[in-house]
Amino acid sequence: MPTVDVPIYPRPFFCAVLKTLPPLMITPASRILGTGHYLPSIVRTNLDLERMVETSDEWIRERTGIRERRIAPEGIVTSDMATAAAKSALEAAELKPSDIDMILVGTVTPDMPMPATAVYVQQKLGAGSCPAMDLSAACAGFIFGLSIADQFIRSGTMKNILVIGVELLSRVVNWEDRTTCVLFGDGAGAVILGPAGGATTTDGKPRGVLSTKIQSDGALAQSLMIPGGGSVTPMSLEALELKRHKVHMKGQDIFKVAVKNLYSATKEALDLTGMTADQVDWICPHQANLRIIDFAATRLGVPKEKVLINIDRVGNTSSASIPILLDESIRSGKVHAGDTVAMCALGAGISWGGAIIRL
Ligand SMILES: CC(C)(COP(=O)(O)OP(=O)(O)OC[C@H]1O[C@@H](n2cnc3c(N)ncnc32)[C@H](O)[C@@H]1OP(=O)(O)O)[C@@H](O)C(=O)NCCC(=O)NCCS
């Protein structure tokens, strides 16, 4: 059999060649048509927490950047918050519930284990019989949903997909554990993803989802979990007494991996587009801890003014974090149509991801 000699070029050679090429011409399949969010009205401040556990406003602000968080009142459930955010996103997209072809809900605090929270959202919106499902990727749930929705639109199977990130963490947080209860808050964010349809900015750049990159590493599953209520530790009186139905976290383990992976997620998503960090207008990171965000942004070489932040007012709302921040930033007039936004998130699993979009 004849053989062909294939030259083996060293990696630096390829990198040098790649740098001489113009940015990739990306043709986005999908585009964000509208965004919305919902935050419950109850504000729980650090001073409120000082009265509940041994902590201080100073410690929480310095170690996390959080001043206050929102708490859902009794009677409000996860699907209520998700539906409110979805209605607002539909209105912004000028679409009706019957226009939705699929509903994806990222959440680790569903209405109940079965059925999916997404079907309650479907029912409350009055959307037709489109597929509706939940995604469990914790704080990365929204990026996972966006990536999956983009693939369905790219394949031509679906047109308009409602992607929601929603959490009612106050019901699964142990309010006696100061290492976790100070971090989390409740809320919902939603986007409608639809066909990009060749839309461009005024200077001719394609608008839409330019890239997504999602990853998981089960080796770190023990770092952040709600260990009870599943097949490992079914609901029992003993499990309840041991608070196995509450959030358990090894904070420092998550901190270290979050700094590393938020950087790599953004970098890898950028590499897929041929862009560099200085070419994006905004970084819209998951709001887990201001110090994590600062470290990751510094490593990316992005100045503070380009980093969107609302952790001081809402805390860590897990999968809802990015879509709430994005919608707030658009509605406040800070972020505009045509802006390029890099999103990145990491959470339990661990699961993480990045996405580059041009609005
Ligand atoms: C949880 C987190 C804020 C803790 O901050 P930290 O700087 O790592 O603090 P440490 O865990 O080293 O604890 C330092 C001290 O503060 C204490 N402490 C912890 N929580 C406290 C609180 N709420 N108030 C006051 N003191 C607190 C600790 O007990 C410890 O005391 P010790 O030194 O006497 O043992 C930080 O690790 C973090 O943000 N991790 C990532 C969490 C995360 O993002 N989770 C969600 C994933 S999306």
From TrEMBL:
Alphabetized, the UniProt keywords read: Acyltransferase, Cytoplasm, Fatty acid biosynthesis, Fatty acid metabolism, Lipid biosynthesis, Lipid metabolism, Multifunctional enzyme, Transferase
- The organism's superkingdom is given as Bacteria
Which BP terms from GO are recorded?
fatty acid biosynthetic process
Question: Catalytic center at which residues?
Answer: 139, 286, 316
Localisation per UniProt entry: Cytoplasm
* Pathway terms, separated by semicolons: Lipid metabolism; fatty acid biosynthesis
**First-tier enzyme category under EC:** transferase
GO terms (molecular function) for this protein are: 3-oxoacyl-[acyl-carrier-protein] synthase activity; beta-ketoacyl-acyl-carrier-protein synthase III activity
What Gene3D superfamilies does this protein's entry cite? 3.40.47.10
Q: Where is the Beta-ketoacyl-[acyl-carrier-protein] synthase III C-terminal domain?
A: 271-358
Q: Where is this region: ACP-binding?
A: 287-291
Task: List the GO cellular component terms.
Answer: cytoplasm
- Limits of the Beta-ketoacyl-[acyl-carrier-protein] synthase III N-terminal domain: 133-218
Q: What EC number(s) does its UniProt record assign?
A: 2.3.1.180
Query: What InterPro entries does this protein map onto?
Result: ACP_syn_III_C, ACP_syn_III_N, FabH, Thiolase-like
Tell me what reaction this enzyme catalyses: malonyl-[ACP] + acetyl-CoA + H(+) = 3-oxobutanoyl-[ACP] + CO2 + CoA
Q: Which family does it belong to?
A: Belongs to the thiolase-like superfamily. FabH family.
Q: What exactly does this protein do?
A: Catalyzes the condensation reaction of fatty acid synthesis by the addition to an acyl acceptor of two carbons from malonyl-ACP. Catalyzes the first condensation reaction which initiates fatty acid synthesis and may therefore play a role in governing the total rate of fatty acid production. Possesses both acetoacetyl-ACP synthase and acetyl transacylase activities. Its substrate specificity determines the biosynthesis of branched-chain and/or straight-chain of fatty acids.
What subunit structure does UniProt give? Homodimer.
Per its record, how is this protein called by name? Beta-ketoacyl-[acyl-carrier-protein] synthase III
Q: Which organism is it from?
A: Labilithrix luteola
**Lineage, uppermost ranks:** Bacteria, Pseudomonadati, Myxococcota, Polyangia, Polyangiales
